[in-house]
Amino acid sequence: MRPEEGTIQSRARAMAAVLELLTDQPVIICNGFPSREAYKIADRPTHFYMIGSMGVAPSIGLGVALAKPDKKVVILDGDGNVLMGMGTLATVAALQPKNFIHVVFDNEVYGSTGNQPTISRLVRLEQMAKAAGYANVERVIEREDLVYEFKDMLKKDGPSFLLVKVTEQAEDVDRVMLEPPEITRRFMKAIE
Amino acid sequence: MVESDDFVQALQDIGFDFFTGVPDSILGSIIATLMERRLYTPAVREDEAVGMAAGAFMAGKVPAVLMQNSGLGTSLNALISLNVIYQQPCLLLISWRGFQGKDAPEHLVMGDSMTQILDAARIPHRTLSEQSLIEDLKWTAQTFMKQRIPVALLLKKGIVKGNHP
Fold this sequence. Notes:
The structure holds 2 protein chains of 2 kinds. Chain A is of the alpha/beta class. Chain A has helices at 11-20, 33-41, 57-67, 79-84, 87-95, 125-132, 143-155, 180-190, and strands at residues 27-29, 47-49, 73-78, 100-106, 109-110, 116-117, 136-140, 160-165.
């Protein structure tokens, strides 16, 4: 049975709660439905929407975080993505960027390709992040816990890892209606 | 042979200020020099390095990624579905293992097909030589700025030497 018992929040609802707490922080959003949902919920020039290169969202965020140590960088990621780029948990933990917040919406499936199961039900991703050495690690299910922990991570020194259990539900959303070079230019200007 | 100190200085002089990658023996002296100068952020996989370079570029840096050519295989999807289509340039310093079939077996197929793979992915490339070093670096900087995509400099064994054993 998927997802974990007690999970009632959809990713879009959880993502909306996170985006509501952000203003002008750089946000890297992984490929597939998460980028499309974020684009629909709240499109901002500080959002970098990915359409390919699965697994690389935290690497991009790390590059931004290292180059802009005065800005908190937020990565909105998925369980399939983290599993694909798992080595980056180690790289982030080794470098200890204080301004790095990695939020993972864990629905236990590859939602953008037809809900094939991932292995995140069997392998606890937040425990991997903790073992790697992230400074703050939390796992939440309820919306109010998500808001509390994310607010706390915005204040604390990172690197932080927030695992949010969400349902398989995906919103009925269009593709991101921006050309990739335009996404790059807009993001660069917004975080200058 | 070019000294790694001079090579790194030349890269810095044309603006490169963010270096990441995964090591290779051919790149050893360059990485040692970069680490001495506290310019190098080690990655664990080449696609991670390419992603970090993309982020650093968007945050105002001029990035370079060092890798063995086996890493070209590992990072190809990130290169073409991130850097190329989003117009996020980086310099790829790729060591040419398996050049002319003289290397360990695992390097031979990539050594033979690397330039065709780069051509197919529309990544401009040049093979670095001591005689044309300044010209090669100039071409790199110009292509980087004009096309805003990854540009590769291929390094054969023995071109850049280090003070480091």
